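ARCHIVE CARD
Drawer: 12
Card no.: 0347
Subject: one protein chain, sequence and derived structure
Cross-reference: see card 0346
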Amino acid sequence: MAPPTTQARPARWWPVMQSARLALIAPLILLAPAAPAATAAAANVSVDPMRFFVGRTETVGQVKVMFHKGYATRSIGQGRIQPDGSLLLVQQVYDAGKPPHERRWHVRQTGPGHYAGTMTDAVGPVVIDRIGDRYRFRFRMDGRLNVEQLLIPLAGGRAASSSVKIRKFGMVVATTDGFIRQTD
């Protein structure tokens, strides 16, 4: 009878752990440009959220919905300031696996650091508040979904990181992380 070998067998769970490790590190690498040192406030760049969306903008991101496979999203926007000083932003939205659709925003400043408006996907008003160097968007969508989006302007003032959390009954059921950049 041969003695038992002391040589270790490769664990079957090792590839899974490597994938999980990469999954945990990848967001950190992707979000590295959005670190506090790279924000517009750190670079002393003042970003007017109404003017940021004037002209052509592009948004790219990754949507993750609970119990579903994540998918890519992209939108091309065209914004202009109306005669009354409000912003009209029209976006063509391209979600992977879905037909393109149009989204319209109409936003006006209601006070220093405070904005309000409408958006075609929202049920009721959109409320936007400046919190330090970022902007928080809050609104509701069909299905009793509460949406909170944080836009953080990046150095140079021509791009921003975007983080969206969608909640139902207080629990996060979907997220979107991405970037918005001016293309004009």
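Annotation on reverse: The first strand starts at residue 55 and ends at 65. The CA atoms of residues 60 and 74 lie 4 Å apart.
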